[in-house]
Fold:
Amino acid sequence: MIELVDVKKHFPVRKSLLDAMASLFTRGREERYVRAVNSISFSIERGEVFGLAGESGCGKTTTGMLLLGLYSCTDGKIIFEGRDLRELKGAELKDFRKRAQLIFQDPFESMNPRFTVRRTIDEPLRIHNLGSRKERFDRIVRAMERARLTPIESFIDKYPHELSGGERQRVCIARAIVLEPTLLVADEAVSMLDVSIRASILNLLRDLTEELQMAMLYISHDVALLGSLCKKVAVMYAGEIIEMGKPRDVISEPLHPYTKALIAAVPVPDFSRVRHTSGIISGEPPDLTRVIRGCAFQTRCPARTELCSREKPRLRDTGSGHLVACPFAGKG
Structure:
């Protein structure tokens, strides 16, 4: 369905007034960039949920924006059904916009407080000028039923402030699927919701992916959550994918020291099952405005060696499709 090939995204750093004045007198001053995404590659198939995990600032959301064509990549290719996104113009680009949708993190902030549920879900249909008023209403009802906002009459004329957090997120899901997209990006879609209703929203997203045969990218900082939802999981650090594979491999048997630290940080309700581990890490992620020599994780890694500062590790297959970007991981 969609494939990323060595994709990079660099953002120019906005200069302060002092920097701008200094550049007038300094020739050859290099432009600074934030290397938010740095050579990542993966693909998502129809009916598959691909999970992307990592701490804040690692490049997860930027990757989602690249998939949707909301950012253009600095280098590399994003192939959607055989076409490079950079080649899409005019009507083809508008058709892609219809087929690629986004579910935001905060359901309240992403809804217009003056719109009823009916108008909220109808908005994408109006933008793309799809169907008559009756046909649009039928599609609204079908989307609400798929999002399990039933009975319809109890929700369709309500405003956002009259709904619970879970109900608002279901409205946002209905708005995203009313166009019956083939690609869906969900950015921390349950992080703003009560724990008691997260499972129902995740089950809904999984069922919709199978029913509509969509390709979904689910972005989360919670690695354990991805294990119950995704067919494949990737872990990002400093704009790079450092581990990728099936959830049972990445989550149950993590190989990279950073992935081990993420798993160790997951709260466990049964303290007798807590695994004592030295995987907890300290320190801060590297400065992404600087070119990183060697491994991006080297300054925080408890197992670093002199090799880590000289060579950038590449993803390698340790068996059964379990990839890791560490030369020492998976070797006993």
